[in-house]
Amino acid sequence: MHLSWVNCYALTVSMAYPGTLSSLYAVTVWIASYALVAIIGLFQISCFIGISIFNQ
Questions:
Q1: Whole-angstrom Cα distance, residue 33 to residue 24?
Q2: Rounded to whole angstroms, how far apart are CA atoms 2 and 46?
Q3: How many alpha carbons fall within 13 Å on the CB side of residue 40?
Q4: CB 3.0–4.6 Å: which of 26, 32, 38, 50 could bond 10 by disulfide?
């Protein structure tokens, strides 16, 4: 929820103020948010796999 809000804010800023700085900021926030989601997802998957292995 928070990440999508930040993403929406960055896109709104880049649309309201078209320019290299705002576009760079929007892209940076977009990449950072998806990287954070990917890291959390990988951590959850690795924990799930580890629990499954240890339970067997």
A1: 14
A2: 24
A3: 7
A4: 26
Mutual angle of helices 20-55 and 2-16, in 10-degree steps = 160
- Position of tokens 């339970």? 55
Confidence class for position 19, pLDDT limits 50, 70, 90: low
Q: How far is CA 53 from CA 6, 19, 42, in A?
A: 37, 51, 16
* pLDDT at 39 exceeding the cut of 90: yes
State both tokens at 45.
Answer: 């998957």
What are the backbone angles phi and psi of residue 18, rounded to the nearest 5°? -65, 120
The pLDDT value recorded for residue 3 is: 64
pTM of the model: 0.46
